Structure formats: structure tokens, C-alpha cells
Amino acid sequence: MDRLTQLNWDDLKFFLAIARAGSARKAAHGTGANHATVARRLTLLEEMLDARLFDRSQQGLTLTRMGETLLPYAERMERELAGASRAISGQDTRIAGTVHVSIPYFMVNTPVGEHIAAFTADNPEIQIALQASNQLASLQRHEVDVSIRYAKEVAGDMVGTVLAHCQKAFYCAPGLAKRMADNGGQGIDILGWNEPHDESDAEWIKASPFPNANLRHRLAEGASQTLFATAGLGLCILPCFYGDAQPGLIRAPYHDPIPDRTLWLLYHKDIRDTARVGLFIDYMTTNIRKHSSDF
What we know:
Largest sheet: 7 strands, mixed
Protein name: HTH lysR-type domain-containing protein
Domain HTH lysR-type: 7-64
Structural class: alpha/beta
Order of helices and strands: HHHHEEHEHEEEHEHEHEHEEH
Shape: globular
Radius of gyration: 23 Å
Distance between the termini: 57 Å
GO biological process, one term: DNA-templated transcription
Helix content: 25-40%
Organism: Actibacterium mucosum KCTC 23349
CATH architecture of the largest domain: 3-Layer(aba) Sandwich
InterPro entries: LysR-type_TF_proteobact-type, LysR_HTH_N, LysR_subst-bd, WH-like_DNA-bd_sf, WH_DNA-bd_sf
Number of strands: 11
Number of domains: 2
């Protein structure tokens, strides 16, 4: 019992990160620490408890029975601390300080990123800590104050504000656009995502404005899709607010934009009354809705 009373949050946050990531290296990426620090903290925690919390294997780290016993208590401590942090932050009336914002990588060089930058220009006493990641940062654990996401719907204990109902379109290099005819994409390649490699067609292409196009390459990220399309290697389908911002790409001819996902601004209800966070929420909501045609 004496050993347990020595536990503190600095010990447990690394334990939780490893339990969720499955390895010390992945946990290091999520915590901002380096791999050696995460591994050392785990070793110190296990030595303090005189217990092995994870089994090590080539596949990664898995919880032992002792680790599984500790996990819910660590998660409860995390929730309590995050709740206290949100409650205290929610009473902060200063129009100054830092707003922690999470967006996906692809949104940085788009109108979303431009509006965030414009907010800081209009509010010089407020700093933005921007976390660009495809992993959804936790609002409940107070990892960020606000998260902007591109999704059909959102769920969880958070407030979701619709910023824009977005469209997507096919994009290509200008040279490829000049070679296209109004023939449903005959003789044109469309860049694939995760389709089987032995297939030259896909149902989503058949249902698209270019049903006669060929499926070519497998590019699972928007950045690689953009790179190949800019090089003239085929059509790619992108959110309009992203595709329109990419140099070297234009909307492919012979089709209209297609309704797509929704742009959401998410925050925990406890943080809304923090003055600087509320100002950011209002600014982004007003300005993106004002320029909804960009999306």
C-alpha cells in the first residue's frame, strides 16, 4: 500500500499512453516525449510498484494482469484531473493566453488554416497552439480546447457546431484537363485509395461522373493523391476547400461538385465560457459560415 501512495499523475500518464498505443515508441509520439524517456518512466514505475505492468514481445507491449488492474484507476485519475482543468479554465475571463486547437494535417494549407491565422492577427494577446494530426485529440482529457474535424457526424461528450456543409470534386493537372473530353472519363486514369491491386475498376468510380475511367495506383493519403495528380498522372477526388487551394491542380471539367462531409468545430461544454476560447469559437464560426462558398 505504501508503494501505491507514491503514485502521481506524471507516472500514470505514461502508463496510460503506452496502454493505448501498444508500444513505448508510439506513446512517445502521442505525449511529446522521446522514446527513451517513455521507456525509462515505465521502468521506474514498475520498479516502484515491484510489478510488471506490460508483457514485452516483438508485436509490442500488452497489459499484464497487474496492468489491467491499474488501468481503470489511472483512467479515473485522468478524468478527474481533466474535469478540474476544464472547470478552472471555464472561469478564466482573460482575453489573453493560449488556445489549443487540433485539426487534421490536410487542413493546414486551406481556408481553415487561413482563418486560424487571421484570428491570431486580430487578437495579438492570444496565442494558438496548433496540433495538426490525423489522430483525434481528446477534448474530454483536455488535450486540446477546440478540435476542427471533417466528418459525416460526430459523437461523444462534446458540443458540435456545424461550420460548413462541404463539397468534393475531381481535380487534375491543367494539361490533363485539356486532353479530357465529355465521354465519362474514357482513356483517363483515376487515382485509387485502398482498392485491391488486381482490380482496374471500383464501384465508386462507376457511380462517379467518370464511370469509364481506369483505376490506377493506390494512394491512401491526400498528400500522395495531390502529388500524383499534380504530376498529371490521373484524377483525384478531394474536398473542394482543400483541392481549390492546391497549386498545380484545377477542377476537372465535365462534372459538378458532389455533396460530401461536414466541417465541425468541437469543444467540451465546460470550456465554452473561457473568454479566449469562446472568442475563438465565435470567430471561426462566423467567418467560415460567411465564406461557406469556399467549402
